[in-house]
Amino acid sequence: MASAAADYSDEPLTPAGRLFVQPQMNQIIHCAVGFKNPINIDSIKSHLKSSLLLSHPRFSSLMVRDSQGLEHWRKIPHLDLDRHVIVVPNPITTGSHFDHDTAVNDYLADLSTSSGLSAEKPMWEVHLLMGHNCAIFRIHHALGDGVSLMSLFLASCRGAEDEEKMPTLASGKRNRVNGKKGWWALLIGFVGMLWFSLIFVVEFVLRCLWVCDRKTEISGGDGVELWPRKLATARFRVQDMKLVKKSVPNATINDVLFGVISSGLSRYLDHRTTNALPEGLQITGIAMVNLREQPGLQEISDLMKSNSGSSWGNKFGMLLLPIYYHKISGTDRLAYLKIAKVMIDRKKRSLEAHFSYKLGYFVMTYLGAKVAAWLNYRIVCNTSFTISNILGPQEEIIFGGNPITYLRVNSSSLPHVQPTESLKICLDVLNCQLEQIRNIYV
């Protein structure tokens, strides 16, 4: 990154932003956007120029370092859009048969281990895969987190039925049940919050330092982020997940998803592992949690207010989400969902996510970016997988006059490995688990 003397107009990076530009955590977000019709390059460029996406100052600012090595955003007078829009004219070869999903995933896999984004220009790009009607937005994580970036992107889109109307952003408001609670219930809830917070915070600190998962076929570790990548896509019907969640009182879609992952990984390890694994072996994942006042996507006007609880940037904490290996034969399919719900409910009652955010902020502020990056890298190396999701639009949307058919997001630079055999096997297993559970209730 360019070094420069400090300018009074420069904006210092936030502590979280500084974390993401460290060599160990140099993370880039990739968002694949599928279009219904062939891509018109001029239309895309014209829409980008006039969109809210480029009106945000971080998308027209360089990353610079002052004489003390501190990072700043420096606004540039003119943005050369041609340096950011990269056109891939020919279809990507995927082997003996032509498949758009596989081609896009292969391209994303190559991007995940490429040289990164140049600091000689604002840290984002749009790759137009003309042969696959797909645009890949490549954005450095220092510019913002998933909620910030998705909110800004959707604010740059319009509804398919009414092109004058912006998409409806999902509020993500949590349902309040049982209305008012008595003082005794509130006291029990408060004690439970303190108890679970204490347990989970201690576990989190131990994970940062030395506790790690036992090595399995899905374990990662130091240096794995440099390995060649394999991406695969699995699709789940929301209607099926809603049907399954009705089988457990007060369950959520996230509970079902995590239960399916738990069951699927157990079966996958049965399929791949030659040596028997101990029953109940813990496999730990990391989940990213939005800590803004409103848990869903945000109106862009709220995000741009610096004094807002929903302000722009990286504002998320981490949760450790353990799953447990069990032999599949004879196991109740819904047992994974029930276990997942109990565990996630306890996590929601705790302050683990807030603690992880405050801990990272404290370490960045008082111990420096190198120590913070080391701790974050350690906790990823000591776990086995990452799970992250975000709400999307509630209706069909268009970008630059072209209807969008899908949005898929992943990120680079995490030392988590995926199975060396085709990852599609694992994802097919997850889909099979959901189908088997669904059949119980149809």
Present the secondary structure layout.
Elements: E1 2-3, E2 11-12, H1 15-20, E3 28-35, H2 41-50, H3 52-55, E4 61-65, E5 71-75, E6 85-88, H4 100-112, E7 124-129, E8 134-140, H5 146-155, E9 158-159, H6 183-209, H7 238-245, H8 253-272, E10 282-290, H9 300-303, E11 316-324, H10 333-349, H11 352-366, H12 369-381, E12 385-387, E13 397-399, E14 402-411, H13 423-440
Parallel strand pairs: 1-4, 6-7, 10-12
Antiparallel strand pairs: 2-5, 3-8, 3-14, 4-5, 7-8, 9-13, 10-11, 13-14
Structure explained in plain terms:
This protein is α+β, with helices and mostly antiparallel strands. The protein folds into two domains: 2-159, Chloramphenicol Acetyltransferase; 188-389 and 415-440, Chloramphenicol Acetyltransferase (2-Layer Sandwich). Helices cover 37% and strands 17% of the residues. The chain has helices at residues 15-20, 41-50, 52-55, 100-112, 146-155, 183-209, 238-245, 253-272, 300-303, 333-349, 352-366, 369-381, 423-440, and strands at 2-3, 11-12, 28-35, 61-65, 71-75, 85-88, 124-129, 134-140, 158-159, 282-290, 316-324, 385-387, 397-399, 402-411. The strands form three sheets. Strands 6-7-8-3-14-13-9 form a seven-stranded mixed sheet, sandwiched between helices. A four-stranded mixed sheet has the order 1-4-5-2, with no helix packed on it. Helix 7 packs across helix 8, helix 7 (238-245) packs across helix 13 and helix 11 (352-366) packs antiparallel against helix 12. The longest helix has 27 residues, at 183-209. The model is unreliable at 419-423 (pLDDT under 50).
